[in-house]
Amino acid sequence: MTLADFLPKDVSLTIATALCAIAFVSGTARGFSGFGSALIFMPLASSVAAPRLVAALLLVIDFVAAAPLLPDAWRKADRKATAVIVLGALVGVPVGTYFLSVLEPVTTRWIISCFVAALLLLLLSGWRYRGKDHAWLSVGIGGLSGFCSGLAQTGGPPIVGYWLGRPIAPIVARANIVLFFGASDFFSMVSYATTGLISRESLVLSLIVGPVYAIGVASGTSLFGRASETIFRGICYALIAMAVITGLPALDRVLR
């Protein structure tokens, strides 16, 4: 038996290879800089396979990868503040999941490209929220991030920009972020399973693509400290921009 015998019927060996290559690049970006994996993966992966399939694939991979980080985050996080922002995700994730499940693939791809472009601009701006802490704002940020996660697993930038701008210790901010996404991923798993997005196909692909993604994360982590963070972050931004442009449905006839 060959690898092709284990692939879902709608996924060819060429598509699986492309997904592995995309996962390696996005994993390397995450391992080095701590961000950018979904922003690179989703526009490119959804241009070679169904957005519903690749969103579920990325969710499963990230859920498994993030699980070991949760016990330490639970100990160090401001759990009360995190619980408030998680309330927003409790609403935002199912709404985003609903749109992912009902929209046409091309429409979803356009939305993903626009979302990722907007989030890239947010990253480039260096935005950090430095105002007062309001419960309604925390819930709103959590809802926005949850919606982005439910639709395309791209909920990172709003949460990172919010927590890193707060007057708290960096170790607490990081723990809050990890704990939030642990909860957000759990909500996404439940929402995706309920709507049928977690399928046999996505689970099989996760067993193939997941190890490649993990290798990418490990490679990126090993590069940390050996290369200029400023330069590597610049490369990540360039990769995200390239992913947005390459993933545009308008360019399908040219690039695919």
Automatic annotation (TrEMBL):
Q: Which UniProt keywords apply?
A: Cell membrane, Membrane, Transmembrane, Transmembrane helix, Transport
Keyword Membrane in the entry? The reply is yes
Cell compartments where the protein resides: Cell membrane
* Transmembrane region(s): 12-29, 49-70, 82-103, 109-127, 134-152, 172-192, 204-225, 231-251
Pfam families, alphabetized:
TauE (PF01925)
Which cellular component, as a GO term, is one annotated location?
Answer: plasma membrane
Protein topology in the membrane:
Multi-pass membrane protein
Query: Transcription: is it a keyword of this entry?
Result: no
Membership in a protein family: Belongs to the 4-toluene sulfonate uptake permease (TSUP) (TC 2.A.102) family.
Q: What is this protein called?
A: Probable membrane transporter protein
Q: What is the lineage of its organism?
A: Bacteria, Pseudomonadati, Pseudomonadota, Alphaproteobacteria, Hyphomicrobiales
